[in-house]
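Chain X:
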Amino acid sequence: MDNSESQSQELLAHVSARAVHLELNGRPPTIEEQICQGLICEGFDCEGKSMETANVTYLSFDDIWHRLCFDPGIVHWRASPAEPEPWTVGEEAWSYPHVDVGLVARLIGVRLKSYKTLVAECGASVVFEFENSCQVHIKNVGDRTSYEVM
């Protein structure tokens, strides 16, 4: 075994030993190979300061909205009854603004190739890969969730 192979095995052993258990709550939707009709990230702002950019992520495929969110060690999936709307809790100075990631990233009408849930030491992520080679990463690290379009 050469040195690079040995280092790779050591890294894999280190990562495996430190892997965090991840629980799925709810049933992940069967949306692969379907056309994206919507992808909205709901942020969380406190007293005007952005705390999270993807506190909840809403995805629409086949005329059904799906809700994705995280708690430490848990990925939650639920069906959502309708297209989400931004909202506020005025007395607490909290707001939940929406970013239409599907529109901004030009994903509306594009087929979802696949999605996968990944585990990391300090959190988890769900990666959506579309036929146009665009990826959307929903990352939860240290109980803060954000999105990234790549």
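Chain Y:
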Amino acid sequence: MIKTKLISDIEYSATKLPARECVLLQARLAKVLGGAGDAVSILDVENEQTFIAAIGKFASSIDPVEMTDLLVYICELASVKGKKINFDYDFNDDIMRSYKVAYFVLEVNFTDFLGGVARSTLGDKLKNMTQP
């Protein structure tokens, strides 16, 4: 099923990945973030602002090359008007939009999977740190 979302006046589309690819993506997130609990807490945030803030909290401990590769991979799972995203071209003028698109792709692929998962302690701490 294809889902769409308007982000910064651009309509992005994303399709739910097959289960095997979702598991692989979650494993990649866990590897980059240092553990399965951290990956779940990143995926189990309330909205894209909390997601961006959570990534910022992890940034100092994440390998920058691995994080960039993963962000590019996730963003390139989306499309605009049926055309695959070219990360360097499409986000050259707005890097923050790439995090919003990544959140959208993760939301499409993990909403039902994580819907029943209780938030981890780390996830709760991140939310408390990012709320005004």
